[in-house]
């Protein structure tokens, strides 16, 4: 990465860090874009060059998450099914790392306590559905608009969402991916 790219990345990170700190300290609705820009020592124009909206400041790793989902499918080990690769990807995320449990809990509390962030998070996460469905279709040699690939992508992304509201997130992820991997009859043979 060149000097200019490093500066841009540093500015972006400073904005995201300042925003999260201010949102956690004062509440999302009490902090303005101007407050965030001032805390990061940049103009509001510079802030909007890096983030299209106030909500986007909270989810600064959006593009990285999408790339990681696609890579989980594309770079899976030989013999590993797509659902298994996605299960492993979800379970390796920071959401399940004990050293981040307090940080994740605080972050989730901010999201759940702010309707605008809850809505944005859901829309953002589900935007990855198309890219993931296309990656699955490519890997399987299916048409780009294959409904089974789209369904798998949709439900794989929902598994993570489901885990965030479950008292046992790991169990929720396993249950969702068991269903995706083996089908309803394998999970619930009685009906």
Describe the structure concisely for a colleague.
With 191 residues, this protein is mainly α. The chain is built from ten helices and no strands. Helix 1 packs across helix 2 and helix 5 (82-92) packs antiparallel against helix 9 (169-182).
Question: What's the layout of helices and strands?
Answer:
Elements: H1 3-26, H2 33-39, H3 44-50, H4 62-74, H5 82-92, H6 101-112, H7 115-140, H8 147-164, H9 169-182, H10 184-187
Helix pairs in contact: 1-2, 4-5, 4-7, 5-9, 7-8, 8-9
What are the main properties of this structure?
Arc Repressor Mutant, subunit A, 2 domains, globular, mainly alpha, 191 residues, single chain, Tetracycline Repressor, domain 2, 10 helices
Predict the CATH topology of the largest domain: Tetracycline Repressor, domain 2
N→C terminal distance = 55 Å
Overall pLDDT: 89
Q: How much strand content do the residues show?
A: under 5%
Going by CATH, the architecture of the largest domain would be Orthogonal Bundle
Structural class label: mainly alpha
Can you put this structure into words, describing what you see?
This protein has ten helices and no strands. The chain has two domains: 3-54, Arc Repressor Mutant, subunit A (Orthogonal Bundle); 62-187, Orthogonal Bundle (Tetracycline Repressor, domain 2), CATH 1.10.357.10. With 191 residues, it is mainly α. Helix 4 packs parallel to helix 7 (115-140). 71% of the residues lie in helices and 0% in strands.
């Amino acid at each position: 990465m060149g000097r200019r790219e490093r500066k841009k990345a540093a500015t972006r990170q400073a904005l995201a860090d300042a925003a999260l700190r201010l949102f956690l300290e004062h509440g999302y609705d009490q902090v303005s874009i101007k407050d965030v820009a001032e805390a990061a020592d940049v103009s509001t124009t510079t802030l909007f060059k890096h983030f299209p909206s106030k909500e986007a400041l909270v989810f600064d790793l959006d593009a990285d998450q999408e790339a990681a989902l696609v890579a989980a499918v594309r770079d899976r080990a030989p013999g590993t099914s797509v659902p298994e690769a996605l299960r492993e990807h979800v379970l390796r995320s920071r959401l399940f790392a004990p050293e981040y449990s307090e940080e994740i809990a605080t972050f989730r509390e901010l999201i759940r306590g702010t309707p605008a962030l809850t809505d944005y998070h859901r829309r953002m996460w589900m935007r990855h559905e198309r890219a993931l469905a296309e990656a699955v279709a490519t890997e399987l040699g299916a048409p780009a608009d294959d409904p089974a690939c789209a369904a798998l992508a949709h439900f794989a992304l929902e598994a993570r969402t489901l885990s965030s509201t479950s008292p046992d997130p790991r169990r929720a992820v396993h249950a969702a991916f068991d269903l995706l991997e083996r089908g309803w009859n394998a999970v619930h043979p009685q009906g």
